[in-house]
Amino acid sequence: MKLSPAPREVRLAGVVTAVPSLALLVFGVVVLVNGLGSPAQPGNNVYVESGTFIVVALAFLAASGGLVLGQTWARSPGVVIALIVVGLGWYLLGPSGEPAWGVPIALFGIATLVLLFRAPSRAWALGLREGETETEAAERGGLAGRRAEREGHEED
């Protein structure tokens, strides 16, 4: 019995999480470009600041790509990205007083969480075969069984 590929929800979540990741990458580059033209100030290292944004954006993009490609390891980072986006939306909605930005950003993160926690996504992440219960998957080895099947070994 073959395992099903990643459900549509997971791949869509990968595309959705790529949007804030790309925005963060662009922001990091903009910070770097703006910092190159301004005089150095004590305690302000534009290279570290922009480098941090760029490295985090690349890590987020790796997770987004993993979801699009159907890699199970990318689901947890995808959830973290969505939670960060929801937190950003909450901050913009409340303390920052920018509901025009906060509401759509928060809804974007919530939509990603919904995609990653829908039943097909959850079953895929747990390594369930079609029609299989969680108990049956646990007896078979769950994700360990899934890895063995990918390598061509059968654990039954």
From TrEMBL:
In what ranges is there compositional bias, type Basic and acidic residues? 146-156
- Spans annotated as Disordered: 132-156
Membrane spanning residue stretches: 12-33, 53-70, 77-93, 99-119
Does the record bear Endoplasmic reticulum in its keywords?
Answer: no
Keyword Transmembrane helix assigned: yes
Q: Which UniProt keywords apply?
A: Membrane, Transmembrane, Transmembrane helix
Q: What is this protein called?
A: Integral membrane protein
Natural source organism: Amycolatopsis camponoti
